[in-house]
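May I ask for a protein sequence together with how it folds?
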Amino acid sequence: MKTNRFSTCYTGLAPKGQDLKERKSLLIMHIVEHEVNGDFMAKILGVGGVFLRCKDTKAYTDWWKTHMGVEISEWGSMEWKNDGKAFTLFSTFPEDTEYFNPSTARFMINLRVDDVPAMLDKARAGGAEIIGEISDEGYGVFGWFIDPEGVKIELWQDNS
């Protein structure tokens, strides 16, 4: 079963055996309390990755492995795991990739967030250009925008 912060609150708040009406009342009180305190405000949780266009992705990642001692994943990314869930990766894409479009920058930034739609709303309110539609890939929810400097930003909400 897929959960979100509200269903998690819902199941975590009510003692077993409590009826549905009591559980809903507790959930509503909990949500209101956190919205007033700002606890449910969308926020960035960390950098999810930096993506770079390269003329030769294999040569570039091999350089990092050979000269800097970086482990390369089976799909060619350089990853640094810290807590088993959150991690940062440095990944290359072919020079002619269209994944960074419509930005002309040679890189894209991926940010881990707790609420993709809310973060896109914040970006839109700040004048950012929203790119495409929100996409749920099973392992995560993604959304994109172009920042004021023309850099494509990918937002990633982990589903695990």
